[in-house]
């Protein structure tokens, strides 16, 4: 009887640990060449979920695509968003309070050097010739960020 109780507790602990990892990390497959050569089509990347306040200049983030290529949803990202949403992978060119880079002026509608508003990011793909990003659709909301890319998988 004691052995069965120990097994049940061990299985429960393992399941809780797995659930904790799934809430903190996600694996996303890159679709497209906007981040080449850093990440290319078909690469799988490990994404660590972070608070919006942890986002910094230069980080590569995965953020939810806007539904109609005009605006983002305003509801919070669902807990199981990875399988239900489409994603962008971009590099943060300016975080809240950072100056708007000259390359994004047209898209965000603000002069270069203007501080990025709270709750917004300027994101740009590494492969600027193949990337649709803040240069075209303006600021990205921080609440649409799934997380920061930690590494390429296998």
TrEMBL record:
* UniProt keyword annotations, A-Z: Hydrolase, Protease
User: Its Gene Ontology biological processes?
Assistant: signal peptide processing
Superkingdom in the source lineage: Bacteria
Q: Where is the Peptidase S26 domain?
A: 6-100, 114-150
* Protein name per the record: signal peptidase I
Q: Name one Pfam family in it.
A: Peptidase_S26
Membrane topology of the entry: Single-pass type II membrane protein
Q: Which family does it belong to?
A: Belongs to the peptidase S26 family.
Catalysed transformations (reactions) = Cleavage of hydrophobic, N-terminal signal or leader sequences from secreted and periplasmic proteins
Give the species this sequence originates from.
Virgisporangium ochraceum
Among the entry's GO cellular component annotations, what is one? plasma membrane
Q: Which InterPro entries match?
A: LexA/Signal_pep-like_sf, Pept_S26A_signal_pept_1, Pept_S26A_signal_pept_1_CS, Pept_S26A_signal_pept_1_Ser-AS, Peptidase_S26
- Which top EC class applies here? hydrolase
Q: Where in the cell is it found?
A: Cell membrane
The gene for this chain is lepB_1
């Amino acid at each position: 009887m004691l052995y069965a109780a120990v097994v049940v507790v061990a299985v429960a602990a393992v399941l809780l640990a797995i659930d904790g990892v799934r809430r903190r990390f996600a694996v996303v497959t890159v679709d497209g060449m906007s981040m080449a050569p850093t990440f290319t089509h078909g690469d799988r990347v490990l994404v660590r979920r972070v608070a919006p306040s942890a986002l910094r200049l230069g980080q590569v983030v995965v953020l939810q695509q806007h539904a109609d290529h005009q605006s983002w949803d305003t509801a919070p990202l669902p807990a199981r968003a990875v399988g239900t949403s489409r994603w962008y992978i971009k590099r943060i060119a300016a975080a809240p309070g950072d100056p708007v880079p000259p390359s994004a002026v047209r898209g965000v509608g603000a002069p270069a050097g203007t501080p990025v508003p709270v709750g917004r990011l300027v994101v740009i793909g590494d492969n600027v010739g193949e990337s649709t990003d803040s240069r075209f659709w303006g600021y990205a909301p921080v609440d649409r960020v799934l997380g920061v890319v930690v590494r390429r998988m296998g």
